[in-house]
Design brief:
Elements (H helix, E strand, L loop, with lengths): L34 H60 L2 H9 L3 H16 L3 E6 L2 E7 L2 E3 L8 H26 L12 E8 L2 E9 L16 E7 L2 H11 L2 E6 L8 E4 L11 E5 L3 H13 L6 H30 L10 H12 L8 E9 L1 H8 L1 H16 L7 E6 L2 E7 L3 H16 L2 E3 L2 E3 L2 E9 L6 H17 L5 E3 L2 H23 L2 E10 L5 E12 L3 E3 L1 H11 L2 H16 L6 E5 L10 H12 L6 E6 H6 L2 H12 L3 E7 L6 H6 L4 E4 L1 H4 L6 H16 L3 E4 L5 H10 L3 E2 L14 H4 L17
Parallel strand pairs: 15-16, 18-20, 20-21, 21-22, 22-23, 23-24, 24-25
Antiparallel strand pairs: 1-2, 1-6, 2-3, 4-5, 5-6, 7-9, 8-9, 10-12, 10-15, 11-12, 13-14, 17-18, 17-25, 18-19
Helix pairs in contact: 1-6, 6-7, 9-10, 13-14, 15-16, 16-18
Length: 768
């Protein structure tokens, strides 16, 4: 991945020019004196020259020493930074599902060479690239050319300790994640382990990096053995030093096994193993003080009449040297405050600028903070790869850099999040600016051979309206982004106090829900399901209810989405399943329907959890019906289909709930045969009011009968609806016309009307 060029930075650091202070020369009055006075004046002038010469020598030495010390520090920091930056070069390959498939399960040397060895050599000039398995190196690229491992110059003595360090760290990390999660880690729960350091490889000083190859979001199952390790080697040769020259402007650098000779400056290569034979990076030092002194010495040895002129020249040279030093420091500061991927200001620069500008805001000078979050960026990374995502972020950075706003600062906050600071007088101007930003990023972009259209959501805060604390303004803007996404994405929302109250309310509700699960505030109601005659009970659907002591009855439509977002839904669903099975165990042969969220199916051990609950409660599997939504099938997740297949093998029935309300597809039904289709209540309630609803129900029933699938209609509330469902041959009905959800104590009167689920209605295939 390339980094955007420095001349395309998205922000400009303001340079404050210091006012020049004129040096006034006060003429001395000519002194008429004898020889003694002349000698005295000559001695004074000579003493002055000697003092100034001594001062100049000391000053020059200090300037040279400071320059050498600063050079040592910059070069040392650059060496350490270069080692750290290798993680960026390797992460896009190592943290990629495709890389796991091509290395862990079978080694596709051609693919690995194109996407790893050759790519690193062509883009970053990596000299050696290896893939190391538990058995040793399995792939080698030497100077960008794939080489047989047996003949490749693999320096095991130098590289093996680094690889072993990665392997040991991976085991420790994996054990910690397993202990914390009590299961196999998924995706970024167990990120790759990266190690880098300087060492001698093949007898030459080199920078070596190693990283474990792991999947990204868990779509590829990680092998149980230690993952492959990607290793790369950069020799400290001319190419490596040319990058150093371009970054730090050092003169004639070279790597030597001997300490710096007189007249050259150098630092020791920070080898990882201190027992390694030392090497030094040396260069020709910059001696601004000596250069300055050599320019001034002729003037200092001149006549006393030129003393003041020489002093003026010294000041001029000193000022020029200071200016050069200041410009060099500003350049280093500019690079430290730039995001290397997007070319925008980074978070440190954002916070620094925001703090400065917040000190100047008042009622007439307002500062708007626009928090931009790209919509669907994770999907682009997952489907097209992180390298395409990085190119997309770079393009977005260039677009934000070209925004024509007054006093604007565009910055990358992190990931796919950006923050733009603009001066605005009214909320209308802020909203207009946000729309212009969204229009800019919505324009199609071609990256990696793909034409992409990206949208975004923007949350805004305004200083001083919403405060003058930088961290608080960003927090509130993030809340506004959340509201923008809730409003359908692709819009601009200015923060309002009600948004924060809503977030606090949702957080309090989450806390109360955790407590309710722990303290048993939840209860289960059961809604009977009837045969189409409306008399015989064929089963019950378990529905969770929450009577909160302070809020009263909390609607499932309010707390279930919060449970799904916070990860509590699996604990909630398993609680409902366990208690419902325990309560319904002795209800004869009627079936029990329990809803499971799509979030539950992300767990690979879902079928084991359900089996354990059935074993603990003694509930027969053939009486249990799991209700799922179409979103689960639409997600097309292999883990979900595997769990559903395992549940069906146990004898559990599967019902497709709310059929027709989402992405209904015959392809999904054919791929995974469900036992029951539950027609969404929106169609049932439109019977008699819309011909389309009746026609759709008729088609669904005919289709289900052709496939030998049971049909249950939800939301039956009128006799007219029931009669129509009877006429089209629907199997089961459910709704308030027949019975609403009832507590456990009211179940007995419906059990008297129940029939065994072991004798399902006869299903007749019809010709469509």
């Amino acid at each position: 991945m390339g980094t955007p060029e420095r001349d395309r930075l998205a922000f400009q650091l303001k340079e404050e020019a210091a006012d020049a202070v004129p040096v006034s020369v006060v003429p001395r009055r000519r002194i008429l004196a004898g020889d003694g006075m002349i000698v005295a004046v000559a001695m004074v002038i000579l003493a002055a020259v000697l003092v100034m010469g001594a001062f100049a020598l000391v000053a020059a030495e200090r300037i040279d020493a400071a320059a050498r010390e600063r050079g040592d520090r910059l070069v040392t920091d650059a060496l350490q930074r270069r080692a750290a930056l290798l993680e960026r070069d390797l992460s896009s390959f190592a943290h990629w599902d495709e890389s796991v498939l091509r290395t862990a399960y079978f080694l596709d040397e051609e693919w690995v060479h194109e996407n790893f060895g050759k790519w690193l050599y062509n883009t970053q000039r990596h000299d050696r690239s290896y893939i190391v398995l538990e058995t040793g190196p399995a792939y080698a690229s030497i100077d960008g050319v794939a080489t047989d491992v047996a003949s490749a110059p693999y320096d095991a003595e130098a590289i093996a300790p680094l690889v072993q360090g990665v392997t040991a760290a991976f085991r420790d990390q994996l054990q910690a994640v397993r202990t914390l999660q009590q299961g196999e880690p998924r995706g970024r729960d167990n990120p790759p382990v990266f190690r880098a350091g300087y060492m001698r490889v093949e007898g030459r000083p080199a920078l070596v990096a190693a990283i474990s190859i792991l999947p990204d979001y868990g779509r590829v199952v990680s092998p149980s053995r230690v993952p492959p390790v990607a290793v790369t080697v950069l020799f400290l040769d001319r190419r490596f030093l040319s990058d150093l020259v371009g970054e730090l402007h050092v003169v004639m650098p070279r790597v030597s096994d001997e300490p710096p000779e007189p007249g050259r400056q150098g630092v020791a290569i920070p080898f990882q193993d201190r027992q390694t034979r030392a090497a030094w990076l040396t260069w020709e030092p910059q001696n601004p003080g000596s250069d300055l002194l050599s320019a001034l010495l002729p003037a200092l040895m001149g006549t006393a009449a030129l003393l003041l002129a020489v002093a003026a020249i010294v000041l001029w040279y000193a000022r020029r040297a200071t200016k050069e030093l200041t410009e060099s420091e500003e350049l280093a500061s500019r690079l430290a405050y730039t995001d290397p991927l997007c070319g925008l200001a980074n978070r440190a620069m954002l916070m620094r600028t925001l703090d400065e500008r917040l000190r100047r805001v008042d009622s007439t000078h307002r500062l708007a903070l626009l928090f931009l979050d790209l919509d669907g960026f994770k999907d682009i990374n997952d489907t097209l790869g992180h390298h395409v995502g990085d190119l997309l972020l770079a393009e977005m950075g260039q677009r934000l850099a070209r925004l024509p706003f007054r006093d604007a600062l565009a910055s990358r906050f992190g990931g796919d999040e950006f923050v733009i600071l603009i001066s605005a007088e009214t909320d209308a101007e802020i909203s207009e600016a946000g729309e212009r930003i969204l229009d800019a990023i919505r324009q199609p972009v071609c990256v990696g051979g793909q034409t992409l259209v990206v949208n975004g959501s923007i949350g805004c805060t305004v200083a001083p309206d919403h405060g003058v604390d930088a961290i608080e303004l960003i927090r509130l803007a993030d809340i506004a982004v959340y509201r923008a996404k809730a409003e359908g994405r692709g819009n601009v929302q200015i923060f309002a106090p009600s948004m924060e109250r809503e977030v606090m309310r949702r957080r309090d509700l989450e806390v109360d829900l955790r407590r309710a699960l722990a303290e048993g505030e939840l209860t289960i109601y059961y809604q009977p399901q009837f045969a189409v005659d409306g008399e015989v009970v064929v089963g019950f659907e378990a529905l969770v209810r929450w009577l909160q002591p302070e809020r009263g009855i909390v609607s499932p439509g309010e707390f279930v989405p919060i449970a799904e977002q916070t990860g509590l839904i699996t604990e909630l669903d398993m609680w409902v399943l366990r208690n419902a099975c325990a309560q319904a165990r002795d209800w004869g042969g009627v079936k029990l329907a329990v809803n499971l969220s799509p979030v539950d199916f992300r767990r690979r051990d879902l079928d084991q959890q359900v089996k354990q609950i059935l074993d603990e409660t003694g509930f027969p599997a053939d009486r249990l019906e799991i209700e799922i939504t179409e979103n689960l099938l639409f997600g097309n997740q292999p883990e979900a289909f595997a769990s559903l297949a395992a549940l069906r093998r146990m004898g559990i029935r599967v019902a497709l709930d709310d059929f027709g309300s989402g992405y209904s597809s015959l392809g999904y039904i054919r791929r995974f045969r469900v036992d029951t289709i539950k027609i969404d209540r929106s169609f049932t309630q439109n019977i008699g009011q819309s011909d389309d609803a009746a026609a759709i129900i008729d088609c669904v029933v005919r289709l289900a009968r052709a496939l030998a699938i049971t049909v249950t209609a939800e939301g039956v509330e009128t006799r007219e609806q029931l009669r129509y469902l009877q006429s089209v041959g629907c199997h089961h009905v459910q709704g308030f016309l027949l019975a609403g959800p009832v507590p456990l104590g009211s179940i007995d009167r419906y059990l008297e009307r129940a029939v065994s689920a072991a004798a399902p209605p006869v299903r007749t295939r019809v010709r469509l």
